[in-house]
Amino acid sequence: MKQFEFLTLKLFVAVAETGSVSAAAERSSIAAAAISKRITDMEHAAGGQFFYRHARGMALTPAGRELLQHAREIIFSVDRMHNDLSGYANGIKGHVRVAATGSAVSEFLPHELKRFGELHPNIVIDLTEWTSQRIVDAVMEGRAEMGIFIDPHTRPDLVTFPYREDELCIVVPTGHPLAGRPSARFADITAFDFIGLEPQSSIGQMVATEGGAQLRLRINVRSTDGLCRMVAAGLGIGIAPRLVVETHVKSMSIEIVPLAEPWAQRSLLIGVRSEEGLSTPARIFLQHCRAG
Fold this sequence. Notes:
D-Maltodextrin-Binding Protein, domain 2; 3 domains; nine-stranded mixed β-sheet; two-stranded antiparallel ribbon; 11 helices
């Protein structure tokens, strides 16, 4: 079988992820006709189809799904090689692609990254904020070397390590009927207008699982900062990570009420595809986070 070119594999992945040649062309800045020819030539060389063609787009065949897994691994390895080698050429020892939840970015990583930068000034951390499920997918697909996410959004083929413990709390405006209480149950908040975090977030999914249909949802926001501002404006109450909310208490008219539910205690995990397969900078950062 004729060997596939690296660029062709990258374009194949782009088509697989976007579902169409036109979308892949826009993402890759390469003409759609050129991408289509490369995909067709690759199928001819392999002796089979990698895509089903439909009027609404393209979908992977079983052979295509198999190729996608291998192509992502190849791209991940080549990108890591370029990052490591370019680091030596530019005086930078390497880059580490990290994906983390909003709570990890807000609560723990600022101090973590400050200490790491002081110890390893020539290692650059490329940090992306995503939801837990998207982080796990990104690590498994090679789009991130390391992920920090909320348990239980893991999977058996992901190598995980304990990172930090997190606590959810109820955020209420000053003077609210729940303000000043030693704690409150989830059932206690259903009588009030509710400010939610986006449904795809770990907290949004957890609230929905625990009885989101009972809530008087007023508005969804994307960040804990936005939630706190909405609560301070009197639009409702919300549930958010306590350590993040504490940074806003002095500057906003809000108060914290402990959430007396077992699921309010959360564990954050670090996940990698393989500890042995990490680049040297990524291994150094992993060791730093685990020792923190």
